[in-house]
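Continuing the series of single-chain predictions for the mutant panel. This is the parent chain; the variants come on the following pages.
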Amino acid sequence: MGATQPEEYGYYFWWGDTVGYRRENNAWVAVDGSSSDFRFNYENTPTYGKDNATLQSEGYIDSTGGNLVAAHDAATAHLGAPWRMPTDAEFAALVSNCTTTWTTRNGVYGRLVTGKGAYADRSIFLPAAGYGVDSLLYSPGYGGDYWSSTRYSDSVDAWNLCFSSSTFDRYYQDDCYYGMSVRPVRGSAE
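Parent structure:
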């Protein structure tokens, strides 16, 4: 989201956020102009520390898979349906059914993710965009963190895809206030 080229970092979102933030003069600026000095912390994140029942009653997640509803899905908010954030099941399939290579694209470090078998001709480059905490951007060029739309079990965690030069895997993050990238997918969740 917010990237026009595969190697661009794009916007950063807290889990359930649909505004998005970009780095400008070492500060987080809301892409809708609502804030010029945003901080990714628990005070600014209404999904932080809430269990599934609470998030469902507040209208953030659905009742079936614990996924964000369209009104709180960053991809749907910015691009419209059928665009949406990937689910954790889709991240699991990506980890299991693809090969990855740490590489650069136009001077930007990241992971080239390539399908296997019948999908060997399909790939996506995920830049190592890092993640935001408070007013800072951590690990750009060294690691990437991408939100899924899925909660982890019945907890206060949410799933994300996390990688570095030596790792590529799913992880559940209890700090839903972290600013992470989103790469949209199209169609119905599987």
